[in-house]
Design a protein that fits this description.
Layout lengths: L2 H6 L5 H6 L5 H30 L13 H10 L2 H11 L7 H5 L3 H13 L2 E9 L3 E13 L3 E5 L14 E11 L3 H4 L8 E7 H11 L4 E5 L30 E4 L2 H12 L5 E11 L2 E9 L8 E9 L11 H19 L9 E8 L2 H9 L7 E7 L6 H4 L2 E5 L8 H14 L15 E4 L7 H5 L5 E7 L16 H20 L2 H26 L10 H24 L8 H36 L10 H6 L2 E5 L6 H12 L17 E3 L2 E2 H9 L7 H12 L2 E2 L10 E2 L8 H14 L2 E5 L9
Helix pairs in contact: 3-19, 4-16, 5-11, 5-16, 7-11, 11-16, 14-16, 14-17, 14-18, 17-18, 17-19, 18-19, 18-23, 22-23, 23-24
Length: 755
Amino acid sequence: MTARSAVLCSPRNPAVVSNALNCEWGDLMRMQTAQSRRGVIAATIAVLAGLVVTSSGQAPPDRCLVPPAIRDAILNEYSGEQARLHVQMLSANRDRAEAEYTGNYFESDYISAEARRYGLSDVRVDTYPAGDEWDAEEGDLWLVQPVQKKIASVNQVATSLAKGSVSADVEAEMIYVGAGREADYAGKDVAGKIVFGTTGVGQVFNNAVNQKGAAGALGTGSAGVSENSAGFTLDQLGWSSVQPRTERGGFGFVLSIRQMLELQSYVERGQKVVMRAHVRTRRYPSKMNVVSAIIPGSDPAAAELLTVAHAFETIATPGANDNCSGVGTTMEVARTLARLIRDGALPQPRRTLRFLWVPEISGSRAYMFQHPELEGRLLAAMNYDMPGTDLEKTDSYLRMKMTPDSVPSFLNDLVANLLQFVDQTEIRTPTGNNAPFNYRLVPYIANSDHMVFLAAGIPAMQFNHWPDNFYHSSADTVEMTDATETKRIGFVGASAFYYLATAGPAEAKALAWESTANGAKWISEVARQSIRLLGRDAAKLPDQYAAVQNKIAGAFQRARGGVTSALTVASDASVQATVKAAVAGLEGVRNAEAGMVEAVFKSQAAALGIKPVVAVPSLRAQELALLVPVKKFKTFSDEARKLAERQQAEGRGGGRGGAPGAGGGRSGGGGLSGLASFEVSGFIDGTRSILDIYNAVRAEYGNVTTSTNDFKFAWVVGAEYPDIDLEAVATAITDLEKAGAVEIRKAEVKGSTKK
């Protein structure tokens, strides 16, 4: 048994074991296809070897793409302590002054003042329309009976009062409802009372206040990654909100585990509990603040690189990791590069480096709608969302979120190269911890600012640490951040974007080579995993074989797209020759892997006593192969903005990022996940048919899981995971047509003549 077949048939791949693929398929394949494969592989090796020999300057001189002159300068200048100081300044939970709602928020003034001090150019604070903003001016919860003591106050922990609470002065008996099931309310009159439950305060509020007339609710927060959990520590309070739906209003207070246990102890002893709540809140006409600045390039007509971090996770309760650490990290990136360029340690780049500090997603969208010219000018974008985490305290690791298949890019390979360099290099800071670097490159995950740029086909990645025991809670403080981790992430981001800002033909060829090497490995990995889909049902085997080959084709398209994207950096004849040779090499890898799968298919068919017949596309598939959706306008055009506003007003989305009408979050509707729905829109390029788009989305997400903690968000293939439905993709596209975002054209049948 070969090493490869041993891996495939191990107990860690139960789908393969259950399908009983004989485990000798590798030997069989070699006997059946040895001669043909020798030629393919030999040609592939020759092409790849020739790429190294004939393309001058495309291979890095050492283990890192970014040369020592750049990375050493950045490593010596970047201060993790300075980045963490910004976190300390920005993350304090405090009562905002009224002037912040009518003028600029504290964060905006702080960031813009520092940017000017660093010498950045065109520093601006722009405002955009937003809904009213809730503000807690006072909020105190007292235990009156059986003892008198203050339980919670916004002056102690700002997150103790749930967002959305309405002003009230109430003294009433506390009623305990446990898990909040209907049976827990049986025989209890909660009208006008303060109701205490062990579930999330929002859930308690909805049942007790909105539906049963209680005055207020007490419950847990959505601390950490477990949503309705009470928190990782005894005193942690999760960020929570309530939504009053009656004229009576109502309030909600968030309890820690320690506070819950105290109140439960009174109930269990049969003591009457009376509480007093004093709440004073206001709503202010508000607006979004977007801070921007640039380090100008020497060529105003050249492409730009955009760095973004959201400065406002919530207005009421900023978090240190989420996302003051993103702000602090990017501010130090800006300072570091500005100083190195000003002092002559690094030359002025040809391309402009642009920085944005925004309200999450909505701020990036507003800025891009205001500056639609950037849609065609941005070479890449980088999103910093929770990049400064202390790995030891939070039980976390770095999730480096790659671009989706609809936007393949060299950016994935450049960042992966730098992450590997950091992993193999001692990078410490005087006050940071000594934890080893721990990172994962993970498939595309949405729900942050990078998705805004990806929706327009702009390559964008995200730095993000996960899981985090203190996420969205009162414990997300500066103590949970780390100067060492901040420096590591800042170094990677600064090095990658300065390298791209100065890149020419030599760097483009180096990126193409890096993408080729990684692309070849990806094609092989997809083939290795996808073989699990071949089962022992004779009726299903042809379709399963088609699905596996489709996945290999999708992996090749991603790999090829990563290589060809180097042409956006430079496109002279030498780069084109390098890219052409690289793509030829990848074609050889694809053909070799497809040949391996074909051998397994034939072997499995023989074992089942059937002919290895390839599945024929259905009539519906043939019909959809002739329908080509075409986007009617650019992502950040005025037409797109009006469509998004109309959809949002109608309650049909359009405000979370992505193209108008496109999914992008956890659920896209119509049987598609949000990620798959996002990709349906992403693959619409005016040349792909609906069938092509279905095949591309299916290759990426069919029988695949990508978003589970169990696998640390890896891309994992298994027959137990849902496939992508052809009609669901067709429906998603026709919905875009109905929304006015695309038109569907009939493709001309090859060989036909127009009359």
